[in-house]
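Thread: Newbie trying to understand structure tokens

Hi all, I'm a second-year student working on a class project, and my supervisor (Dr. K.) asked me to get a predicted structure for one chain before our next meeting. I've only ever worked with sequences, so writing a 3D structure as a token string is new to me. If someone could post the tokens and maybe explain what I'm looking at, I'd be very grateful. Here's the chain:
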Amino acid sequence: MNMSQPNNPLHGLTLEMILNDLTAYYGWEELGRRIDVRCFNQDPSIASSLKFLRRTPWARAQVEALYLETVRNLPNTASTATNRKN
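---
Reply by user tm_fold:
Sure, no problem. This is what the structure looks like when written as tokens:
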């Protein structure tokens, strides 16, 4: 079953990939400033953030929106989204 999503800019990206790209670019402190959630501000880790974001749709939506904004503003970025080919 091939489910192509050509209009979905996040297709093929996992939440972990998105979070790793954002933390590499912004760092935890700036990420916590931009999206004020405890998992980014108090003892942050990828594992605790993934657990929270998978259970909290509004926070996940904010992370995905920040990722798309960041990728859009960096045309020559080395992020996962710009390097993948379908």
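A couple of things are worth pointing out once you decode it. The mean pLDDT is 85. The first helix runs from residue 15 to 34. Feel free to ask follow-ups in this thread.
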